């Protein structure tokens, strides 16, 4: 026999909630625990962090992937969310976070393993294979997966010369340095670039987040931290650590636009002469740079607008004008 009798499949990792949903007693335990209602509420809550939404998606997907978990007679999922599949389909095609789009696509594949899930996906306009072990679901119109809302800039703009000085945001200069703890957070983020001080700085940041979590939920403080990440050399693990620190900060398009463009004049004159950007920095030099950044009378902090740059994403970069050269 030259060809295999069936397509190879990868065993699905076991999930605690998914295993409970395979039996009547397990479904009764899940129904009495109230956890399903909490997961559905987290999935539909617009203020929930992406990590919480992904956890809810995977759990509901494993429950919905079983025949007992998605049967209408068991009233396990449908009693809390009769539009669960429609909600996940909407996230897979319209969510602004691409990571949640990908998770939703995989979760719909899990739901396709159950008979009731296949019917719900078929009604939603999605195609599923006959083999329940395939765990794949795709829309009838695949183009819907790649639709992205057109980003309209506040004003028409061309490519910007990196030597030009972008518009100044006095609001950011004043509000980013309100407390000594905010200054300490930025200093510790700077110390993460050095392998000598990285471990101690990471431990200090974890302690500060445990005692003052509200400081890491502020949008302007998160932008100030991105200022340093954008200008100096960091290892990927250090960058990921900083991203996780500010995971609850509101960095949506609406929040960034309302902050960056409120009361600002986008047209600024270009400074004379070019500027050289330092590719790396030592710990003492970076500390002094941050101190300079925190003094509004001696240095200016600027925010670069989102531009259409070839081969790059449309991202808002935060930089420092004079303190970083």
Automatic annotation (TrEMBL):
Residues 50-128 form the Rapamycin-insensitive companion of mTOR domain. GO terms for cellular component: TORC2 complex. It comes from the Eukaryota. InterPro entries: ARM-like, Pianissimo_fam, RICTOR_V. GO terms for biological process: TORC2 signaling. PANTHER family: CYTOSOLIC REGULATOR PIANISSIMO (PTHR13298), RAPAMYCIN-INSENSITIVE COMPANION OF MTOR (PTHR13298:SF11). This is Rapamycin-insensitive companion of mTOR domain-containing protein.
């Amino acid at each position: 026999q030259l060809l295999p009798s069936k397509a190879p499949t990868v065993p699905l990792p076991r999930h605690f909630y998914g295993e409970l949903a395979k039996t009547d007693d397990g479904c009764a335990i899940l129904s009495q625990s109230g956890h399903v209602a909490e997961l559905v509420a987290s999935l539909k809550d617009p203020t929930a962090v992406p990590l919480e939404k992904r956890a809810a998606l995977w759990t509901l997907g494993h429950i919905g992937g079983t025949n007992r978990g998605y049967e209408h007679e068991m009233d396990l999922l449908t009693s809390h969310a009769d539009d669960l599949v429609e909600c996940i389909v909407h996230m897979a095609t319209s969510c602004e976070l691409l990571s949640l789009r990908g998770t939703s696509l995989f979760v719909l594949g899990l739901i396709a393993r159950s008979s009731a899930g296949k019917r719900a996906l078929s009604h939603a306009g999605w195609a599923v294979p006959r083999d329940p072990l395939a765990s794949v679901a795709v829309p009838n119109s695949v183009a819907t997966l790649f639709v992205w809302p057109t980003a309209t800039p506040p004003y028409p703009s061309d490519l910007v010369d990196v030597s030009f000085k972008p518009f100044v945001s006095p609001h950011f200069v004043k509000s980013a340095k309100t407390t000594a703890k905010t200054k300490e957070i930025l200093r510790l983020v700077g110390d993460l670039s050095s392998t000598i001080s990285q471990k101690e700085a990471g431990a200090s940041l974890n302690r500060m987040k445990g005692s003052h979590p509200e400081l890491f939920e502020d949008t302007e403080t998160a932008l100030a931290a991105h200022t340093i990440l954008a200008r100096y050399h960091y290892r990927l693990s250090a960058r990921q650590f900083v991203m996780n620190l500010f995971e609850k900060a509101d960095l949506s398009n609406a929040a960034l636009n309302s902050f960056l463009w409120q009361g600002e004049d986008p047209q600024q004159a270009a400074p004379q002469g070019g500027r050289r950007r330092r590719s790396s920095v030592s710990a003492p030099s970076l500390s002094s740079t941050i101190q300079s950044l925190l003094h509004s009378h001696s240095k200016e902090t600027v925010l670069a607008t989102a531009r259409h740059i070839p081969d790059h994403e449309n991202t808002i970069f935060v930089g420092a004008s004079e303190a970083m050269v």
